[in-house]
Amino acid sequence: MSPSPSRRSVLQTIGAGAVLAATGGALTACGSGPSGGDVGNAGKKLAPWPTYTPFDGPKPDLAPSAEGVQAAYLKYPQNLAQAVAEKPGDGKKVTAVVLSYGAPPKPLAENKLRQAINDALGVDLELIIVPPDQYVAKLSTLMAGGDLPDILSINAGGFFLPNEAQFLASQCADLTEHLSGDAVRKYPNIANLPTYAWENMGRVKGGIYGVPIERPMPWQGMICNREKLKTAGLWVPEVGGLKAEDLTKGAKQLSGKGKWAFAAHSGNQFGWIVHSQTHGAPNNWEVKGGAFSHTMESDGLRDAVEQMHAWYKDGVYRADALAVDGATVATDFQNGRIAIQTDSVWLQDTQRVVAGKFTADVARPYQAANGAASKHWFGNGYFSYTALKKAPKARVELLLRVIDFFASPFGSKEWEFINFGVEGTHFTRTESGAPTATKLSLEGENTNTYAVKTIGSAPQVLYPYGFDGDRDAIRRTYEWQQAIVPTGVRNQALGLRSATWSTKATTLDQLRADAINAVVSGKRPLSDWNKIVKEWRSKGGAKAAEELAKEYEAIKG
Fold first, then answer.
1. Whether the Cβ atoms of residue 282 and residue 295 lie closer than 8 Å to each other
2. Most buried among 164, 255, 287, 397, by the most CB within 10 A?
3. Which residue positions in the chain have pLDDT lower than 50?
4. Model pLDDT, residue 469
5. Neighbours of 549 (CB within 10 A)
6. Domain check: are 141 and 270 in the same one?
7. In this predicted structure, what is the pLDDT of residue 25?
8. Could you say which of 460, 477, 498 is where a domain stops?
9. Strand 338-344, strand 260-262: pairing
10. pLDDT tens per residue across span 30-87
11. Residues 523, 529, 533, 534: is their CA dihedral positive or negative?
12. Which residues, at least 6 apart from 145, have a Cβ–Cβ distance to it below 8 Å?
């Protein structure tokens, strides 16, 4: 982790991703469509996923689990491993288009980090860096124009690209022969990427067309001011240990006079994800007996909306929630005006921002009034994936070596270089040997501005900033993951292809968001919910379910 604002805080500030990150819908890629023919997997020979080969590096202090708990390091490894045997490149230029949430980097001639990266790679790397608000337009233009860079960051941050799968099949390299099965062993750092990231990325026409940028499966939770919850009798660190009625009672105690128990703003629909999963709703799409159904159609979501509406009437949400943004809510939480903020769990970021004002922790799911078993909605398991322009085999292999370099795992010399830069220039070391950023790095010469980590990236681990500071936030995050991962469920549409969902998801997700906001805030009655669901189905939801079922049968069969 390098010294800059987190992606989550940036998204809160710019207001991007609130809808996209709150739904897996726009992450399901295209099926058959007008320009690329049938790019689904039904009737195709399915390429085996890359053989997972874990990195043999420094052992974590807190062990990961196969189910999704992340590895945690409480101190910086002293003996870093070598992850790349030789320079990947041949001295030629490599171009890449990437998404970045940071400020533009300095030109090559003035940027020692860019120069060092080129030297380490053995290529002349030229990035086309695109901010979030221009990403879809820029990628769409490149896709339509045919003059492609060598490397493309696709689906970055969940931004949906129309006819994405058709584009991959027609203009991008089929990586199956390079990465499928044991072939991936030629790229050991790519082989270290977990299988769930590949599965959730999905195939196109049965083949592998990208390399995923992994993200952990544990996702959103109730980030809280632990001291406030304790004063109201609400800190119960067991899943289901707190009943909804007791939560309501304590939430009322924490609300009033410019303070609220729960955060709500224009982008998070009153924390609908956390409350829906607690009420047993499926994670976007689920499949039973081969048939697909969506959260919108579930009793769990309806029950959650009813509960949130009751809380809204009780005053535990701010009355003007739909008129404020995420940045305002984040500030209110940091200043103690809000006790619980529902968001992606990056607890160390939160603890660093509150700077000792209180203990940031993650409240465990409560027992909903409908009696349902809480389900933690796993995230997508990847941030984006990297595709390559069609090229001769030798060129594709070179580009894969570049990706493999950037995928160097935590505990390697290459990971340290990618994340901290050149020792003595971009970082120095503390007494324990941990890297700490220099002024040059803090002022912008880092890989958040020069966004190479969206070309390739290692599986994420938990570790404390600076390594010599507060490690308790890491332990608290790890303990939360241990508690909720056993209840985790994935969006079962991930990796499947649906032409309808690829074109209708954004509209249907907005319909869902508008409905939740309207019913919770009292602008529409709960009795309208069945009518809302019927509209959602008629506008594409029912057709998408049919297409997903066909894809699922092909993959599971």
1. yes
2. 164
3. 1-36
4. 60
5. 17
6. no
7. 36
8. 460
9. parallel
10. 433 333 457 888 788 999 999 999 999 999 999 999 899 999 999 999 899 999 999 9
11. negative
12. none
3-state secondary structure of 127: strand
How many beta carbons lie within 10 A of that of residue 124, not counting itself? 13
Element containing residue 530 per DSSP (H, E): helix 529-536
Q: Residue 34 corresponds to which tokens in the numbers above?
A: 């007008």
**CA distance between the termini of the chain:** 41
CB atoms within 10 A of CB 117: 23
Bridge partners (DSSP) listed for residue 125: 94
Question: Which residue, 27, 36, 24, 34, is CA-closest to 165?
Answer: 36
Task: Report the alpha-carbon distance of residue 211 to residue 230 in Å, rounded.
Answer: 44
Parallel, antiparallel or unpaired: strands 151-154 and 93-99? parallel
What number of other Cβ atoms are within 10 A of residue 55's Cβ? 20
Query: Looking at residue 265, which CATH number applies to its domain?
Result: 3.40.190.10
Predicted local distance difference test score (pLDDT) of residue 34: 34
Q: Which residues contact 319 (CB under 8 A, 6 or more apart)?
A: none
Q: Based on the domain organization, do 346 and 390 belong to the same domain?
A: no
Distance of alpha carbon 349 from alpha carbon 171, whole angstroms: 39
Tell me the one-letter amino acid at 512.
R
Contact yes or no for 130/98 (Cβ under 8 A): yes
Q: Which domain holds residue 250?
A: 220-377+490-556
B/e letters for 187-211, b = 16+ CB within 10 Å, e = fewer, are bbbbbbbbebbbbbbbbbbbbbbbb
Q: Are residues 447 and 503 in the same domain?
A: no
| Residue corresponding to tokens 């049919």 | 546
